[in-house]
Specification:
Strand content of chain B: under 5%
Distance between the termini of chain A: 57 Å
Order of helices and strands of chain A: HHHHHHHHEEHHHHHHHHHHHHHHHH
Low-confidence stretches of chain B: none
Strand content of chain A: under 5%
Oligomer: heterodimer
Structural class of chain B: mainly alpha
Distance between the termini of chain B: 56 Å
Largest sheet of chain A: 2 strands, antiparallel
Number of helices of chain A: 24
Strand order of the largest sheet of chain A: 1-2
Mean pLDDT of chain A: 86
Low-confidence stretches of chain A: none
Mean pLDDT of chain B: 87
Helix content of chain B: 55-70%
Number of domains of chain B: 2
Structural class of chain A: mainly alpha
C-alpha cells in the first residue's frame, strides 16, 4: 500500500512531474530514432543527473527507459527500421500495416498494448518486490554468490548468436572490473603501474563508450541511407481504432504481458527476447494465422505488450539483489551509487519511500507516454525524418566526450570512453555481447565480495556452495541454462544444415 | 532467429587465448594478502582461465565463418583517430579550441560538406557545450597544458 502515498506525493510535485513528462518525450524520440536506444540516451544523460536530487534523477532515467522501449515501435512501423532490437518483432506486422495505409491504426495498437504491458509489469513489480526483498534479506554470502554465478551464465549464454562469445564477453567484463585496488586488501590488480588505473575503470565512461560512442561508430556504416517515412493520406476509417478491432488483440496482450514480465525478472534477457517469444507464442495460437506477417494487428500487439512488460520486473533483481536485469538497470546503478544509495534488500529498510516514489513515477510516466504516443506518434515520426543523421551523430559524438569528462572531471575517463566505444563497436561486429560485458562488469564486484566472504565462513573451502541447498539450486540453474542453450543452438545449426 | 556463423572464429579464438594468457600471467603477479591467501587473485584468475578455455573452443570450432564487411573500416579508423586526437588536443589546448577543431572534422567524416555548416559548427559547438556543461552545470573545464582560450577570454 506504500504506492498510494507515493503517487499522491509525486502528483503534488510539479517539478518532478515536469521531469517525468520530459523523460516520456525524450525517451519516445530517442527510441524512435533508428540506431539510438534508450540505453544510449540514459548513458549520455547520466552525468547530467549527478546534479539533480536522487528521485528526479532516477525517475527521469527510469521513464526514459520505459518510453524508449515504446518509441522503438514508431520506427518499426513507420520507417521499416526497428528503433530498438525489441521492436524488430513489431516490424514484422507493423510495417505491412503501414504499407496498407494503416500506420496510425498500428501505432494506436502499439501504444495501447505497450501501456497495458508496462502497467502489468509495473504492478507485478510493486506487488512482488518487497516480498522478494524480504527473502533476499535471509540469503547469506554463499547464496548471493550462487545467484550472481547463475546471472553470469544466463547473461553470457542466453543472449546473442554465440554462446562462447557471450560467455567471453562476461569474462572480459569481470576482468575489466578487477582493474584497480582490491577492495579488501588494497592490493593493486591489473594496474600496470598506472596511477590512473588504481581508481579502477569508471562505470559511466564505460557505459557511454559501449552504448553511445559504439553506436556512433556503427552508424558510420549506415551513412547515406535515407530514413523513409511511409506516407499515407488521412483517412478516418484507416486511422481510427475501434473496440471491435482491438478486442481480438486483448488475449495476446494479456499473455504477452505475463511472458514479458517473467522474462524481465531474469537477469540479462531483456526486451528483444520477450518480444520475439511473445510474437512466436501469439502466432502459434492465432486464429488468423495467414494474416500474421502480412499486417495483423495482433502481431503488433503481442510483441509490444511483452517488450514493455519487461521494464518493471527487470528492476526486481536490481532493487532486491543488486543484480541489474537489463542494461538500463546497470546504468541506473550508477545513479544510485552517485547519490550514496545502497542497492540490495536493505534498500527497502533504508530508502523505502524513494523506491515507491520511483515506482509511482514509473506509473505516471506510462500514462504520459501513452497519451502522447496515442495522439502524437505520427508527429514524432515526421519530426525524426527531419533530423539529418549526418548532423545528429557528430553531435552525439561530441556530447559523449563532454559527458564522459563530466562524470569525474578527469580526462582519463574520456580515454576509457573512447576505448570502450571502439570495443563496443568491435564486439557487435564480431557477435560478442556488449550487454553481457557491461552487466558482468557491474556484477563482478559484488560477486567477488560474496565469494570471498563465503570462503571465510567455510570450513571446507568451496564445498560451502554445495552444502547450502539454495546456493546449490542457483548453481544448478546456471549450469542448466547453459546446457539448454548449447543444446538449442546445436539443434538449430543441424536444422539449418539439413535445410541448406 | 536461427543463428548464422559468427565472423572469424580462428582469429577471435587466438585473440581470446592471448588475452587470457596475458591476464593469467598478470593475475599471478597480484600480491597475496598478509596471511598468504589468494583472495585478491581468485576472480582475475577465474576470468583469465575462462577466456583461455573459451578461446580454445572458438579455435576448435569448424573453420570458416561469416565475412566481415570491411568497406567502412577507413571511416571507422578516421573517427577513432579523430577521437584520440581530440583528447590529446583538449589536454594540450583546452576544451574550446579542441572542440572547434573536432566538430567540423566529425561532421566531415559523416558526410557534411557545406562550408557554412562546418564553420557554424566550429563556432557554435564549443560555445554551446561550454555554456551547458561548464557554466550552467558548473563542471570545471579541462584546461590546456600549453595554451587555453579561457586564459584570454577570462573566466578561469
Amino acid at each position: 500500500m506504500d504506492i498510494f502515498p507515493a503517487l499522491i506525493g509525486v502528483l503534488s510535485d510539479p517539478l518532478l512531474m515536469g521531469w517525468v513528462l520530459l523523460a516520456a518525450i525524450v525517451g519516445m524520440i530517442v527510441g524512435a530514432i533508428p540506431g539510438l536506444t534508450a540505453s544510449a540516451a540514459i548513458a549520455m544523460l547520466l552525468p547530467l543527473t549527478f546534479y539533480m536530487e536522487p528521485l528526479p534523477a532516477l525517475a527521469f532515467l527510469y521513464v526514459i527507459g520505459k518510453s524508449g522501449r515504446y518509441g522503438g515501435s514508431i520506427a518499426a512501423i513507420l520507417f521499416n527500421t526497428p528503433g530498438t532490437a525489441a521492436s524488430a518483432a513489431t516490424q514484422l506486422d507493423g510495417y505491412p500495416l503501414a504499407r496498407q495505409g494503416k500506420a496510425s491504426k498500428a501505432m494506436k495498437v502499439a501504444t495501447i498494448s505497450s501501456v497495458i504491458g508496462d502497467f502489468t509489469g509495473e504492478i507485478l513489480l510493486i506487488a512482488g518486490v518487497a516480498w522478494i526483498a524480504a527473502i533476499a534479506l535471509k540469503l547469506g554470502p554463499p547464496e548471493l554468490f550462487a545467484v550472481n554465478f547463475a546471472a553470469f551464465i544466463v547473461i553470457g549464454s542466453v543472449i546473442g548468436k554465440s554462446v562462447t562469445r557471450g560467455l567471453a564477453s562476461a569474462a572480459l567484463g569481470i576482468l575489466v572490473a578487477m582493474i584497480g585496488l582490491d577492495p579488501i586488501s588494497s592490493t593493486e590488480r591489473f594496474t600496470f603501474g598506472s596511477f590512473d588505473l588504481t581508481n579502477g575503470i569508471g562505470l559511466v565512461p564505460l557505459m557511454i563508450g559501449i552504448f553511445v560512442l559504439g553506436e556512433v561508430f556503427a552508424q558510420i556504416e549506415e551513412r547515406g541511407k535515407p530514413t523513409e517515412l511511409v506516407q499515407g493520406g488521412h483517412d478516418a476509417a484507416r486511422d481510427g481504432l475501434t473496440w471491435a478491432e482491438y478486442k481480438p488483440c486483448l488475449p495476446h496482450v494479456a499473455r504477452s504481458s505475463f511472458i514479458g514480465a517473467f522474462i524481465g525478472m531474469l537477469p540479462g534477457l531483456g526486451s528483444a527476447i520477450a518480444a520475439f517469444v511473445a510474437y512466436g507464442e501469439g502466432k502459434r495460437r492465432a486464429r488468423n494465422l495467414d494474416e500474421w506477417g502480412h499486417g495483423a494487428l495482433e502481431g503488433v500487439a503481442a510483441p509490444e505488450a511483452a517488450n514493455n512488460a519487461v521494464s518493471g520486473p527487470s528492476m526486481a533483481p536490481l532493487l532486491t539483489l543488486g543484480i541489474p536485469g537489463s542494461t538500463i538497470g546497470a546504468i541506473l546503478i550508477g545513479v544510485f551509487l552517485i547519490h550514496g544509495i545502497q542497492i540490495g534488500p536493505t534498500m527497502f529498510l533504508t530508502s523505502r519511500d524513494l523506491v515507491y516514489a520511483l515506482f509511482a513515477c514509473g506509473l505516471i510516466g506510462i500514462v504520459m507516454y501513452g497519451v502522447i504516443g496515442y495522439y502524437g506518434a505520427a508527429f514524432v515520426g515526421r519530426f525524426i525524418t527531419r533530423i539529418p543523421t549526418r548532423v545528429l551523430y557528430p553531435v552525439i559524438f561530441l556530447t559523449s566526450f563532454v559527458a564522459a569528462y563530466t562524470s569525474r572531471g578527469n580526462l582519463f575517463d574520456v580515454y576509457v570512453m573512447v576505448a570502450a566505444g571502439f570495443a563496443g563497436w568491435a564486439m557487435r561486429k564480431l557477435d560478442f555481447n556488449p550487454a553481457a560485458f557491461v552487466i558482468s562488469f557491474v556484477l563482478a564486484g559484488g560477486a567477488e565480495e560474496t565469494f570471498r566472504q563465503s570462503l571465510l565462513l567455510s570450513d571446507n573451502g568451496l564445498m560451502i556452495f554445495v552444502t547450502r541447498p539454495v546456493a546449490l539450486i542457483f548453481l544448478l540453474i546456471g549450469c542448466l541454462a547453459l546446457a539448454l542453450r548449447v543444446r538449442s543452438l546445436n539443434r538449430q545449426s543441424r536444422a539449418a544444415a539439413v535445410t541448406s | 532467429m536461427t543463428p548464422g556463423p559468427s565472423p572469424a572464429p580462428r582469429v577471435v579464438g587466438v585473440a581470446l587465448i592471448l588475452i587470457g594468457i596475458g591476464a593469467t600471467v598478470t593475475a599471478f603477479g597480484i600480491s597475496l594478502d598478509q596471511y598468504g591467501r589468494w583472495g585478491a587473485r581468485y576472480f582475475p584468475l577465474v576470468g583469465s582461465v575462462a577466456l583461455i578455455l573459451l578461446g580454445v573452443i572458438e579455435v576448435t570450432r569448424a573453420p570458416g565463418g561469416a565475412v566481415v564487411d570491411r568497406r567502412h573500416l577507413p571511416a571507422i579508423a578516421a573517427l577513432l583517430l579523430l577521437a584520440i586526437l581530440y583528447i590529446i588536443c583538449i589536454s594540450a589546448f583546452g576544451y574550446l579550441i579542441a572542440t572547434a577543431l573536432a566538430a567540423p572534422a566529425a561532421l566531415w567524416i559523416f558526410g557534411v560538406r557545406s562550408p557554412v555548416g562546418l564553420a557554424a559548427a566550429m563556432v557554435l559547438s564549443p560555445a554551446l557545450y561550454h555554456l551547458v556543461f561548464f557554466e550552467f552545470l558548473g563542471v570545471f573545464p579541462p584546461l590546456g597544458r600549453y595554451f587555453d582560450l579561457l586564459d584570454l577570454i577570462g573566466g578561469y
